[in-house]
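Can't paste images in this forum, so I'm doing it all in text. The chain is below; anyone willing to post the predicted structure tokens underneath?
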Amino acid sequence: MKTYIKKDVVEKVVEITSEKPEIVSRIVNDVFNTMREIMTGDDLELRVEIRDFGVFEVKKTKPKLKARNPKTNEIIAVPARRKTHFKPGKLLKDFLKIPLDKL
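Text version of the structure:
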């Protein structure tokens, strides 16, 4: 599996826009930092919707009164917390549905 990092995203945007890499890098960093700030804010549940790409959601989980530590078999209580979820948009979802032999 190939892993892409933020630097790869910057390089792709530089290719598309022909902007200076320093400018693109600063903008990409600002976008990710802003999304992180929004998602780690005080809201317990929220959505960040990016049209034609997808939706990032922060959702609450329920507390679990009886969870088991598989290593020690100890029964523990797990408190409620928040988790992230990504739902792809229509364009991305439709592309991912194409059979691999058609690519």
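Helices lie at 6-17, 21-39, 90-96. The chain is about 35% helix and 25% strand.
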